[in-house]
Amino acid sequence: MHGLGNAYVFVDGMGEGVPLPEGVEWSRLARAVADPDFGVGSDGLILMAPGASQMAAMRIFNADGSEGEMCGNGVRCLAMWAHQAHGAPRRFGVETRAGVRTVEVVESPAFGLATVRVEMGRPAERGPGGVPLGAPLQLEAGGQMLEAWPVGVGNPHLVLFVDDVASAPVGRLGPLLERHPLFPQRTNVEFVEVAGPRRLRMRVWERGSGETQACGTGACASLVAAAATGRAGREAQVELAGGRLAIEWADDGRLWMTGPARLVAVGTLPWSWVKEVAGP
């Protein structure tokens, strides 16, 4: 499934009597399925299962096998699948490493197609590197000094404002900033062009996956940085390579994201292959 081209292979453990298999090294499986030549090809792997206190729970593994805290595009896809394939209500909670996220299937016109609204929590008072929300950070990368805005929205982000996002050096600066010494846990990096008070254009270098078509938490971080610095309002359309997300930073501090989810295919990973690439 994918949200605006941010595509993941989902392992479904939500059905009754069909738990996730034991002994699988999920990080190794994520690397294997993400490989476009010897695997399926994706931005990573997402596990879906019943939650301890909520309707569902998810774990997200990036293409390099590292585990992330949350995935905005992925949680929309989980919401669609749980509602359409497992009869979950339109609105329910999803447990993530970043906390519980409330999802609502706004539109469900056909199986494998939906529009989902997600409550994305509140931005942290301090972003990656311990920088207060809304404060700039001066750092060096690639032989130049840069001004950026760290934002924590369940996972770490670093927002840079640019005049033209199409020509932004995402592939050059993205990996340098992801692994900058200031961020021992690494960070996602957003390059953002402010096209108007309610319109942002964004490209993203995702921690562990490289440049992707879209990033839901990155879109939230971009709006927070733009609004906190007076560049835009608290509600905007964020244009990404794969399409648009509607982001709102409500007066109570909570972030809301609305966007599409799409099913591409349903299939089976042969157990013999799973054992070969990821144990048990």
Report on the structure:
The chain has 280 residues and is an alpha+beta fold. 19% of the residues lie in helices and 39% in strands. It has five helices and 18 strands. It has helices at residues 26-34, 72-86, 170-178, 216-228, 271-278; strands spanning 2-3, 6-7, 9-12, 44-49, 56-62, 67-68, 91-96, 99-110, 113-119, 137-141, 144-152, 156-161, 188-196, 199-206, 210-212, 235-240, 243-249, 255-262. The strands form two sheets. The chain has a 16-stranded mixed beta sheet that branches. A two-stranded antiparallel ribbon has the order 1-2. It is globular, with a radius of gyration of 18 Å. The model has no long low-confidence stretch (mean pLDDT 96).
Q: Main beta sheet, described?
A: 16 strands, mixed
Radius of gyration: 18 Å
- Quote the beta fraction: 35-45%
> Quick one: how many beta strands?
18
Distance between the termini: 26 Å
Unreliable runs:
none
Category by helix and strand content? alpha+beta
* Arithmetic mean pLDDT: 96
Explain briefly what this protein structure is.
The protein is of the alpha+beta class. The protein has 5 helices and 18 strands. Strand 10 and strand 11 (144-152) form a beta hairpin.
Lay out the secondary structure.
Layout: E1 2-3, E2 6-7, E3 9-12, H1 26-34, E4 44-49, E5 56-62, E6 67-68, H2 72-86, E7 91-96, E8 99-110, E9 113-119, E10 137-141, E11 144-152, E12 156-161, H3 170-178, E13 188-196, E14 199-206, E15 210-212, H4 216-228, E16 235-240, E17 243-249, E18 255-262, H5 271-278
Parallel strand pairs: 3-4, 5-7, 12-13, 14-16
Antiparallel strand pairs: 1-2, 4-5, 5-6, 7-8, 8-9, 9-18, 10-11, 11-12, 13-14, 14-15, 16-17, 17-18
